[in-house]
Each structure stands twice: as C-alpha cells, then as structure tokens.
Amino acid sequence: METIIVYLDNMFAGLPKTPELERLKQELLSGMEDKYLELKQDGKSENEAIGIVISEFGNIEELTAELGIHPARQEKTVPMLSEEEVYAYAAAKRSSGLWTGLGVFLCACGVALLITLSTLFENNADMADKGSMLGMVGMFVLVAVAVGMFIHSGMKLERFESLEQGFQLPYALKTALQRSQALYAPTYRLALIVGVCLCVLSPTFIFATSYVNDDYAPYGVAAFLFIAAVAVFLFIYYGNIQGTYTKLLEEPNITAEKQEENRFVGVVGAVLWPLATAIFLFTGFVYGRWDVNWAVFPIAGILSGMFSNVYHILKRKNVS
Question: Is the terminal CB of the chain with fewer CB neighbours within 10 Å at N or C?
Fold first, then answer.
C-alpha cells in the first residue's frame, strides 16, 4: 500500500489543495485499498496487486478534465524525501540544538566565572590582578570551546540546506511525524514552562544579594547568568526539536513571502541579541550596574516581537 499511497500523492501533487479534491483523493485511496486487499486474498503477489490497482486507476488528467479541475500553477517541483533522509535531518537538528545550547551555556558561564573570580579577589591587593587574569583566561577558554560547538553545529546542518527550497513527504511518513509531534508536545510545553520560570526567577538572585550587601551583587549577577543560561539551553534544545517537526510538516511549497519573512526575523535577531549582550557587559564592567542592566534582555525580546509585528502590518498594507 505504501507504493500506492506515494503514487496517489504524486498524482495529486500538481492539483489545487481544495476540500473537494481531498475528498476525491480519500475516496480513490479507499477504493484502491479495497481492490489491493481483494487481489491479495485472491493469491496475487505484492507486485501484481500493485500493478493491477494502478493500471485500473486510470489517467489523472482525464479524471480531472471530466470534473473541470485544472492543475495548480507551481513555481517549482520539489523533491520527495525518503524516510532515511527525514530521520537523518531530525537527528542532525537534535544534535545541532544540543551543541548550540551547550555553547550558549558555556558563554554565559564564562562571563559568570569572570565576574565571580574578579569579585572574590578584589579586596585582596595581591590577588586582585591574579583573580581577574584567571577569570579572563577561564572565560576565553569557555568561549573558545563554545565557538567550536557553534561551528560543529552549523556543519551538521550544511548538507540539509537544500530543504529550504521545499520538499514533499510520503503520506505514511507524514502521518507518523504528526503522531510523533503529538507525543512530543507535552515535553516541549514542560521545557518552555521551566525555561520561562527560570528566566523570571533568575533576577531575584541579583535583588537578594544586593539587599544583603551591595558588595555581593556581582555574585547575584553570576547566579543570574548561570540560571538564565540553563533556561536558554532548554529553549534552544527543545525548541530545535519542535522546529524539526514544524519544518518537516509545513506546506511543500515555500512561498517567496515566507522566505522573506524568515530572512527578516533572522536579520533582526542577528543584530538585536548580540547588541543586547554587548550593552549588558559594557554597563556591567564599566559602570557596575549589574543590579539593573539585566533588563536589557527582556527589552530585547519585546523589541524583537515588536519588529516582527510591524513587519506583518506593513506587509498586509502593501498587499491590500
């Protein structure tokens, strides 16, 4: 039946996605399945049964012509992915999310290490410079390891860049992915809830240490960075898995408008978040405002959402 389903999917791939055609497709599939099972019960082999069913199916052009249905215009023909390609892509995305999440975590831990060691030895004149130096060395080592993880993560996905041009999935494989996505949904929701709770709670370390003693505020900042890094890891790792299902189950043909939207969001993120991090570090190390400069990250998140909404509004106005 898998061969018959794929054959039917290919026959209907060039037709409009209307409810009428979907019903027709399901009726044809049901009839072909009944015929296939009947032939198998009569002792026909797998190949014989498939050949007879497909030969009796007829010509899709003749059938649609009788119904007055014309093929939809397609910008391009997209390839049909095999099961091996799909699961290889899913494994690469999961691994990429793991390495990227760990890289971000190590970057944040490097900054936290620098703050902790610098503060720990700042009251000791003999050890102050050594503490700062150890912190700097530790931070650069962790950042170097993180950069290696980012490069490794990007290389894992290079061979799947062609998927950005669009693809199709066999019916049975698409159904299996939909079931897997439904089973994964509770895990993804839990990861989001835990991540958001950690983000909300992380600034309390800064407030608590500042309340006890202003000199302890840098330790609160280090704890804030560590907890926030754990939250970001959860977002990246589990979000990457969810993104895999979203990518694989999207419409076969990616419109030019959707590609443009993805590029815009990517450009905004590539500029906004590094800028927010630079402001956070600058105001912390130069002005010592660790108690308030953490607010730059939620502000960056709000600005990111605002830019995205403004983009959608402008696009709708242009269309209208």
Answer: C
